[in-house]
Amino acid sequence: MAKELTEELSVAGQISPAEMTDLAADGFRSIICNRPDGEGADQPSFAEIAAAAAAAGLQARYVPITAGQVSDADAAAFATALAELPKPVLAYCRSGTRSTILWAMTEAGKRPADDIVNRARLAGYDVTGVMQRVAKGGAGDTDKPVASHDIVIIGGGAAGTAVAASLLRRAPDLDIAVIDPAETHYYQPGWTMVGGGIFSAESTAKSMASVLPGRVTWIKAAVASFSPETNSVLLEGCRAIRYNHLIVCPGIKLNWNGVEGLSETLGHNGVTSNYRYDLAPYTWDLVRNLKSGKAIFTQPPMPIKCAGAPQKAMYLSADHWLRTGHLKDIDVSFYNAGGVLFGVPEYVPALMNYVERYNAQLKFNHNLIAIDGPAQRAWFKKTGPDGATETVETSFDMIHVCPPQLAPDFIRASPLADSAGWIDVDHATLRHKRFANIYGLGDAACTPNAKTAAAARKQAPVVAENILCDKGRLTIVRAYDGYGSCPLTVERGKIVLAEFCYGGKVTPTFPRFVIDGMKPSRTAWLLKARLLPPIYWRAMLKGREWLAKPKDFA
Q: Which cofactor is recorded for it (predicted)?
């Protein structure tokens, strides 16, 4: 919903391409996007917004601002866009906060500070800290905490919600705050099933308010920076939050712009990805409607979340084509930037049986670097055994893309990051290597494990108990063994249940007579399709740690 700051400018949270006609009817003539592509799993790209805006007669401008890192140069770029575009203008980001901050900075010195603050407040935004910093030239006492909590958790996804629930199960009196600007919590392991026509997209989403434990304080904001020396984090809008313990688990960034041309064509021209909430249904539409042609599935260099997901999409798609009699007319290829089908060799024979069943062509050491959606062409960098590279071009009728991935920007630029940009934690205790009262878990941690919800389920009680040890409430330090699980959906109704820990050691949860992870199993399918979603919502996120008891630190 648009919130007016002036007659010429309103701000809003994320908008969709479908809203452009209504926005034009409401009198807007221009759109400014202040949200970088790939920031959220439910976020349309600016290219999609711009195309829909043009169709509705609106101009659109891209002024992307990293959450929590609004600079004077950003404000100048925003002011230029605002001056050049037809009025009135709607500026948007994730929540509207960045757009409001940019406006406040551009208006500083042009209108009274009280007027700026009051207009922002009426729209639902607090820019008091921003105006104080502007007045003091970026210095002063505005970094003093406006709130303090015993434990602060960055991120309300699977890892953040699970660790909050684990802590409160053990110590209900804890003062915990969760910082996350997102309104929606997603069960992302379900998106492969959405792309296979098994789950609905809506079944994988719930409001963040309904998922977070009732006893936590939810701070709906983005983190700008960390100050571990003062035990505080600075939020977007220049608000500082103090902590005694900090838990950092913001998830992973999907770098859609890491492939040339990808953002412009996602959701169109046969280009899709189950890694985005709104695109997983498009995958199923493409699969159902493809009767002949060339289908390509890609996997980028590691690390990525759910490393089996790119090939799961291939198996479920090919299974549908096989069942409907169309597979004989479809050329299926899997282009993998890596050199093996799966990183734990014990599971490869079962997977290869399905590769052969679907007559899928495996293209190892092929990394997607560019795509032309309208022409339905893709380019890969192929690396040979001697390290020499060449560019390979191919056509497609459908392409499922797994984007390259990296740690969030505000983590990579922080003192918490290691040399590769991930949260620098001990692989066993998950304690930060340099700051003893900081822990990290989930996809953004530097741990060399599979980045899955199953890993977060095992990590959460380890962090919870180790923090309680720090506080003197428990005495035994716990360790994470690197456990991860990847239910590989090789066909509709059967799954190869891969479970492993650090070093690729196979670590099955169930006896082989219940589920033999080396073979495709109907029982594993029932676990994935029927049991894991309620286990996620009603157990993992509620602190009920079924089969997740933490191990002692050796």
A: FAD
- Rounded to 10 degrees, the C-alpha dihedral 462/503/336/487 comes to -50
pLDDT tens, position by position, 81-109? 999 999 999 999 998 999 999 999 999 88
Q: How far apart are CA 231 and CA 208, in angstroms?
A: 26
Stretch (H or E) spanning 128: helix 128-135
> What's the CA gap between 41 and 186, in Å, rounded?
9
For the annotated catalytic residues, the residue numbers are: 306, 486
Which tokens in the block code for residue 313? Answer: 């999409």
* Residues 401-434: tens digit of each pLDDT: 999 999 999 999 999 999 999 999 999 999 999 9
Q: 242: part of which helix (H) or strand (E)?
A: strand 239-248
Q: Which of 3.50.50.60, 3.30.70.1030, 3.40.50.1360, 3.30.70.860 would CATH assign to domain 256-403?
A: 3.50.50.60
**Gap between the Cα atoms of 375 and 140, Å rounded:** 55
- Give 455's DSSP letter: H
- Total-model pTM: 0.90
Pairing of strands 484-491, 494-501: antiparallel
Q: Are strands 232-235 and 478-479 parallel, antiparallel or unpaired?
A: unpaired
The domains spanning 3-135 and 256-403 adopt the same CATH topology: no
**3-class secondary structure, 220:** coil
The full 3-state SS of 362-399, as one line of letters, equals EEECEEEEEEECCCCEEEEEEECCCCCEEEEEEECCEE
Res 497: pLDDT: 97
Q: Structural domain boundaries of the chain? A: 3-135, 146-252+407-552, 256-403
146-252+407-552 sits in which CATH class? alpha beta
Q: Assign a CATH topology to domain 3-135.
A: Protein-Tyrosine Phosphatase; Chain A (3.90.190)
Residue count (the chain): 554
| Residue 258, CA distances (Å) to 70, 253, 376 in order | 23, 11, 18
